[in-house]
Structure formats: structure tokens, C-alpha cells
Design a protein that fits this description.
CATH topology of the largest domain: 2-enoyl-CoA Hydratase, Chain A, domain 1
Largest sheet: 7 strands, mixed
Radius of gyration: 21 Å
Order of helices and strands: EEEHEEEEHEEHEEHHHEHEHHH
Helix content: 40-55%
Pfam family, one: ECH_1
Shape: globular
Cofactor: hydrogencarbonate
Family: Belongs to the enoyl-CoA hydratase/isomerase family. MenB subfamily.
Strand content: 15-25%
GO molecular function: 1,4-dihydroxy-2-naphthoyl-CoA synthase activity
Catalytic activity: 2-succinylbenzoyl-CoA + H(+) = 1,4-dihydroxy-2-naphthoyl-CoA + H2O
Number of helices: 10
Structural class: alpha/beta
Bound molecules: o-succinylbenzoyl-N-coenzyme A
Number of strands: 13
């Protein structure tokens, strides 16, 4: 019989979704891929719904941390659904082939709140890349990590390659991709792929504990740190996001507000009163 994940929070479910579950509680949002019969493989519908859910979590001023997980204990996510893979991507009800997991990877990176991957079972293929894109990963002791691309005829040359290399080093990234082996939770921890390994029955308790600690911290400081840590890898796009965060902070200053107020009051702005800091 499949072991159960133990829930330690009174989650409130909302939204009408087919492939995912969206829940909130105590400043946290929990987003769950709900296709356990396919080891939580994603299809275009899953990714459209995940986009909507991550947007909701981003826009909700009550939410400070997002937990991203998979239903059941067998898998976080097994990547793209190979059974609906056509000749030019994953095919949804509209008959169009898509590779829209890439949009989700970018969305998680750009989201200015910490995203914690809560991994039980397999995080493989495109599912492995998703946990790599998250800010933190808490793993159950039954977790298995790996890439399968060269085995099933796919590869991720974006975040799936170079963010992985940044995380575990180039030699290990090459090993993971070229050999398509799976690695247990302890190895993943030893390689710096995950932040903590706990017994399966403590997975949500531990993840929620990390989320609660994050919620005690300054949201703006966390936002700036996420932007800063991503900016190095994300190049111009990362700097664009970081520059936007700097603009947000500037908007919140009296100095910037003086410019706005002067325009509205049809007067010359008085910037002379603001310090010229060293
Ligand atoms: C996960 C594995 C190891 C689990 O093994 P286990 O526990 O023995 O269970 P199974 O019996 O194998 O599976 C149970 C049922 O679930 C189905 N299933 C499992 N994974 C998938 C899947 N990915 N797609 C469809 N169905 C899946 C099984 O078929 C089984 O159902 P039944 O019995 O009814 O057949 C094991 O299942 C496994 O190895 N799975 C495949 C892992 C894999 O290779 N995933 C695909 C990797 N590639 C990608 O993810 C591509 C990413 C990508 O496409 C991409 C890349 C770059 C840029 C963009 C993209 C993009 O997608 O957009």
C-alpha cells in the first residue's frame, strides 16, 4: 500500500483545475501537480493551470512563500507526458504541439517570492528541471533525482543544463545528463541539489517549518536576494528584473514621490532637500 504524505496545515483549496490543486494557508500557497497515475507527468493543460496558479500566488498579497509539489508519494514530477508527445511537442486538446514547460521555468525564476520544491519520489526529466528552478528543495528519504533525455529522445539545453551545472558543478551535470542514472536523496544532498532530507512522513512538516521561517523574514529583502542570486545566471533578463526591483524600492522613497507630486501639483520638484549620499 502506498504510504501517505502527512499534512500538518489546514489548507484551503480554491480554483477550478483539472490537473493541479491550489491551496493556501497562513501566508503559504501550495501548488500540487495532481496526475499521480502518470507519476505527475505534465501535459499542456497541466502547464496552463500551473501558470495560472503561480500567477495567483504571485498576485496574492497574503502569500509570501510557495510550496510546489506532486500528489502522492511516488513522484514529484516525471517530466513531459510521453504518451501525448507528438512530433513537435506535447499535444493538448487543441491538437497543437507545445514545449510550454519552459515558460513555467522562467515564471518560477521571475516570481519575487521564494518557491520551495517539496519532493517525494521521482523528480526526473523535466520534473527534475522544475525542482532545480525552485529556490529551495526539501526531499523525502524516498526521493530519486535524475535526467532521462538521452534515453527518451529529449534534452533541456536551458536552465535544465546550465542551472544544474551551476548547482552541482559541470562534471556532475554532465554525468547526470549523459548517463541518465537516478540518484537517491542522500546523494542529492551531498551534491548540493537539495537543502534537506527528511523521512517521508515528515516531509510536509519540515517544508512548512522552512516556509514559516521564511515568512518571519523581510519580504523585500528576500525579493532582492532572489533577484540578485538569479541575475548572475540570467544575464540581461536577470538584470532587467533586478533593475525593476530597484525601481520598486525607489518608487517607495520620498525622493521619487516628490517627482510624482510635483508633476501632479504643476510645480517644480524640490530635490534639493534630499541627501547626496556618499
Ligand atoms: C518516473 C519513473 C521512474 C517511475 O517508475 P515506476 O515507479 O516504476 O512507475 P511506472 O510504472 O514506470 O509509471 C507508472 C505509470 O505512470 C506512467 N508514466 C510515468 N512517467 C510518465 C511520463 N513521463 N509520461 C507519461 N506517462 C508516464 C507510466 O507509463 C505508468 O503508467 P502505465 O502503467 O499506464 O503505462 C518512470 O515512470 C519513468 O522513467 N518515467 C519516464 C520519465 C521520463 O523519461 N520523462 C520524460 C523526460 N523528458 C522530459 O521531461 C522532457 C522535457 C521536455 O520535454 C522539454 C525539454 C526542454 C525544453 C522543453 C521541454 C518541454 O517539455 O516543454
Amino acid at each position: 500500500m502506498e504510504e501517505e504524505q502527512v499534512s500538518v496545515v489546514d489548507w484551503k483549496r480554491s480554483g477550478e483545475y483539472e490537473d493541479i490543486v491550489y491551496e493556501t494557508a497562513e501566508g503559504m500557497a501550495k501548488i500540487t501537480i495532481n496526475r499521480p497515475e502518470r507519476r505527475n507527468a505534465f501535459r499542456p493543460t497541466t502547464l496552463f493551470e500551473l501558470r495560472d496558479a503561480f500567477d495567483r500566488a504571485r498576485d496574492d498579497g497574503e502569500v509570501g512563500v510557495i510550496i510546489f509539489t506532486g500528489a502522492g508519494t511516488e513522484a514529484f514530477c516525471s517530466g513531459g507526458d510521453q504518451k501525448i508527445r507528438g512530433d513537435d511537442g506535447y499535444v493538448g486538446p487543441d491538437g497543437i504541439g507545445r514545449l510550454n514547460v519552459l515558460d513555467l521555468q522562467v515564471q518560477i525564476r521571475r516570481l519575487p517570492k521564494p518557491v520551495i520544491a517539496m519532493v517525494a519520489g521521482y523528480a526526473v526529466g523535466g520534473g527534475h528541471v522544475l525542482h532545480v528552478c525552485c529556490d529551495l528543495t526539501i526531499a523525502a528519504d524516498n526521493a530519486q533525482f535524475g535526467q532521462t533525455g538521452p534515453k527518451v529522445g529529449s534534452f533541456d539545453g536551458g536552465y535544465g543544463s546550465w542551472l544544474l551545472a551551476e548547482t552541482v558543478g559541470l562534471k556532475r551535470a554532465r554525468e547526470i545528463w549523459y548517463l541518465c542514472r537516478f540518484y537517491d536523496a542522500q546523494t542529492a544532498y551531498d551534491w548540493g541539489l537539495v537543502n534537506k532530507v527528511v523521512p517521508l512522513e515528515r516531509l510536509e512538516e519540515e517544508t512548512v517549518q522552512w516556509a514559516r521561517e521564511l515568512l518571519e523574514k523581510s519580504p523585500l529583502a528576500l525579493r532582492m536576494l532572489k533577484g540578485a542570486l538569479n541575475a548572475v545566471t540570467d544575464g540581461a533578463a536577470g538584470m532587467q528584473q533586478f533593475a525593476g526591483d530597484a525601481t520598486l524600492l525607489y518608487y517607495m522613497s520620498e525622493e521619487a514621490q516628490e517627482g510624482r507630486d510635483a508633476f501632479k501639483e504643476k510645480r517644480k520638484p524640490d530635490f534639493a532637500k534630499f541627501p547626496k549620499r556618499p
